[in-house]
């Protein structure tokens, strides 16, 4: 039996509480204006902290985005893991991945959603960032590997490249389009179908 995790106390608890206030205030401002237009002054006023406190916890606005991305990826990966633990096929898994990515938009709003997705293409992304740091990519690689080994997908496909192309293509599509919900749904269905055709056994 695992010992219960001790809650932070004293200064550490205060530091974490302040960080949470700054993060929540920044996300609220980003949702309203987008990251580029966000006013750090408005963030620190809403959080009730000094300007230096913001930069102590988040050296730049992009660091807030990276933290939000990490949290949302963990949430999505947990849901995806629950889905693939039950009987399923590759088309169902890829369609589920799309729905889970779209669920982020509902949680954070359309403006901030595009900013988060845009991080994947940012030249300022941390140089030590690896694909294995992104749990959804890891899980989609595992799912395509499973499908290939089960004969659902072509034996010659590379699961890593197939997963990265699928997810980055999805992120790019969602970042650059603003069609009606019905049009976007049809476009995403077509995107998944096209991806699956490229992986079909020959």
Automatic annotation (TrEMBL):
<dbReference type="Pfam" id="PF00440">
    <property type="entry name" value="TetR_N"/>
</dbReference>
<dbReference type="InterPro" id="IPR001647">
    <property type="entry name" value="HTH_TetR"/>
</dbReference>
<keyword id="KW-0238">DNA-binding</keyword>
<protein>
    <submittedName>
        <fullName>TetR/AcrR family transcriptional regulator</fullName>
    </submittedName>
</protein>
<keyword id="KW-0804">Transcription</keyword>
<keyword id="KW-0805">Transcription regulation</keyword>
<feature type="DNA-binding region" description="H-T-H motif">
    <location>
        <begin position="39"/>
        <end position="58"/>
    </location>
</feature>
<dbReference type="InterPro" id="IPR050109">
    <property type="entry name" value="HTH-type_TetR-like_transc_reg"/>
</dbReference>
<dbReference type="InterPro" id="IPR009057">
    <property type="entry name" value="Homeodomain-like_sf"/>
</dbReference>
<feature type="domain" description="HTH tetR-type">
    <location>
        <begin position="16"/>
        <end position="76"/>
    </location>
</feature>
